[in-house]
């Protein structure tokens, strides 16, 4: 019997009832689907949890960087390329060339670094981990790295004292957050002008914090590989039993501070032999503390009050550069001195073992033999 004949045999009431039921079922299914659609749209948004790093596909980053077309620079771990996201955000994409760890460890580390937020830290926007590709996506800082702005013999513009002073304060604030104010202590391990980036208003932000951990740490042991850059490495890196603590960063900060104030590199072979090494010059001047400012060239370009600040800053640098890590201040203490609420230690020992060693020329990156056991990121 056909469906039509069957319906004719049924009572009109039953037909009406059947009709309403069919409509109801169809509507319910359609409604369910649209709810699902809406949920999917919401899920798409949730992929970008505010404040958490986004996971990009390799293809998305190829598009964003126009196939890795514009290289911003190259460091110890790979190259950095400029890019732009769909919403117009400018990005710097670091393509890691060494594979140091498996997928899950990389993801965990990217998540950990991405959750660090401070105005003076370069923000990790996202990452990509696909097969053998490992990429990190950072906010783009239009004025590039500090080394292009503070050395008078480098081509390009040179920053005035006021701006350089603000930059020193910015670096100290970023470091204070890493060392003392975030949930875990993070030792940067590679504080140097190339890892300090400047935004369009010349605010300084620290880059590459925790990167050594991201790349080198073997999850089976709490050891870190020796890394850093000659000229910025604290003496304890050379000691077989030297403990690697936040004070290695304080030492590197001391060198950076000295370089910013003196507007030259710590080791500069283009200088006459007596001025070859800033640290050696500082050691010599240390006998008469008020003469430390003599290590700065072209002093007549500075006002009297600038010179007082410069003398103070050099003393802070010397405080940070002492051989004994215990004698170096915490960065929160440095901040207090920079902000003028505390005095520099009056008992600085101006004997720097590194002043005796001529550092290798250039800024070759080190990432090699494991040093004594130490933990890069300890619970506080
Ligand atoms: N977020 C960024 N915005 C703008 N420029 C950047 C950014 N990140 C890196 N760069 C540029 O790319 C260069 C290379 O950076 P990279 O971190 O790879 O090397 P590095 O800092 O010289 O050495 P290291 O490997 O020790 O960090 C930097 O010196 C800087 O000029
Ligand atoms: Mg770097």
Describe this structure in words.
With 380 residues, the chain is an alpha+beta fold. The chain folds into two domains: 54-139, Phosphorylase Kinase, domain 1; 146-367, Orthogonal Bundle (Transferase(Phosphotransferase), domain 1), CATH 1.10.510.10. The protein is built from eleven helices and twelve strands. It has helices at 3-9, 12-46, 58-64, 103-114, 147-150, 161-181, 211-216, 247-262, 278-285, 304-320, 331-338, and strands at residues 54-55, 71-74, 78-84, 90-96, 124-130, 133-139, 184-186, 196-198, 204-206, 227-228, 366-367, 377-379. Strand 8 (196-198) and strand 9 (204-206) form a beta hairpin. The longest helix is centred in the first third of the chain and has 35 residues, at 12-46. Mean pLDDT is 82; it is low at 40-46, 217-223, 358-363 and 367-380. Bound molecules: adenosine-5'-triphosphate (ATP) and magnesium ion. The site of magnesium ion has 5 residues, from loops.
């Amino acid at each position: 019997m056909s469906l039509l004949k069957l319906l004719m045999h049924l009572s009109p009431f039953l037909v009406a009832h059947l009709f309403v039921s069919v409509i109801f079922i169809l509507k319910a299914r359609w409604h369910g689907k649209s709810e699902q659609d809406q949920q999917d749209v919401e899920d798409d948004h949730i992929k970008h949890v505010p404040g958490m790093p986004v996971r990009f596909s390799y293809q998305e980053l190829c598009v964003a960087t126009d196939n890795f077309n514009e290289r911003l620079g190259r460091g110890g771990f790979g190259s950095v390329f400029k890019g732009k996201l769909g919403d117009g955000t400018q990005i710097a994409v670091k393509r890691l060339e060494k594979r140091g760890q498996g997928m899950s460890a990389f993801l965990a580390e990217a998540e950990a670094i991405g959750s660090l937020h401070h105005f003076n830290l370069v923000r990790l926007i996202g990452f990509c981990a696909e097969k053998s590709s490992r990429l990190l996506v950072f906010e783009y800082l239009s004025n590039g790295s500090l080394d292009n702005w503070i050395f008078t013999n480098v081509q390009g513009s040179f920053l005035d004292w006021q701006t350089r002073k603000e930059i020193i304060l910015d670096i100290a604030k970023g470091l204070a957050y890493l060392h003392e104010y975030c949930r875990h202590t993070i030792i940067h391990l590679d504080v140097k002008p190339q890892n300090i980036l400047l935004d369009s208003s010349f605010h300084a932000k620290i880059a590459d914090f925790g990167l050594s951990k991201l790349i080198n740490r073997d999850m089976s042991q709490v050891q870190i590989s020796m890394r850093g850059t000659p000229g910025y490495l604290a003496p304890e890196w050379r000691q077989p039993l030297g403990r690697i603590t936040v004070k290695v960063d304080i030492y590197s900060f001391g060198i950076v501070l000295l370089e910013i104030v003196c507007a030259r590199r710590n080791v500069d072979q283009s200088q006459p032999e007596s001025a070859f090494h800033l640290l050696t010059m500082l050691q010599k001047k240390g006998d008469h503390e008020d003469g430390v400012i003599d290590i700065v060239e072209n002093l007549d370009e500075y006002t009297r009050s600038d010179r007082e600040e410069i003398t103070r800053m050099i003393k802070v640098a010397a405080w940070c550069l002492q051989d004994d890590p215990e004698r170096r201040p915490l960065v929160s203490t440095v901040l207090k001195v920079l902000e003028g609420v505390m005095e520099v230690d009056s008992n600085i020992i101006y004997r720097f073992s590194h002043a005796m060693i001529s550092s290798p020329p250039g800024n070759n990156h080190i990432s090699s033999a494991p040093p004594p056991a130490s933990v890069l990121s300890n619970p506080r």
